[in-house]
Design brief:
By secondary structure, the protein is an all-alpha fold. The chain has one domain.
Length: 96
């Protein structure tokens, strides 16, 4: 569902795409699967929840970077989320 939403082309209401919708869908999926995993005591489902959570985080970071680039223009690339936090994100993804 989130992937299908992200494939929609930009339109008048979403001139830069539908990434924020994907973040919301992935967050809801993560929370739902996490609750189900705890209910049935399944570490596999809980791990799947973390997968969706990490997708939501990286998609949100990409959307934030796009916003910074569009609003700030040239010279603002030092402030992008992925540039500032990539070492942290890379390290934390290894933990999970």
């Amino acid at each position: 569902m989130g992937f299908q939403l992200s494939l929609r082309p930009p339109d008048d209401d979403h001139p830069y795409g539908h990434g924020i919708g994907v973040v919301l869908v992935k967050t809801v999926m993560s929370r739902t699967i996490e609750k189900l995993g705890k209910m049935v005591n399944s570490r596999a489902l809980e791990g799947g929840a973390w997968h969706h959570r990490s997708d939501a985080i990286t998609t949100g970071a990409a959307a934030g970077d796009t916003t910074i680039a569009l609003i700030g223009g040239p010279g603002w690339e030092w402030l992008t989320i992925m540039r500032l936090f990539s070492p942290v994100a890379s390290s934390s993804s290894m933990v999970f």
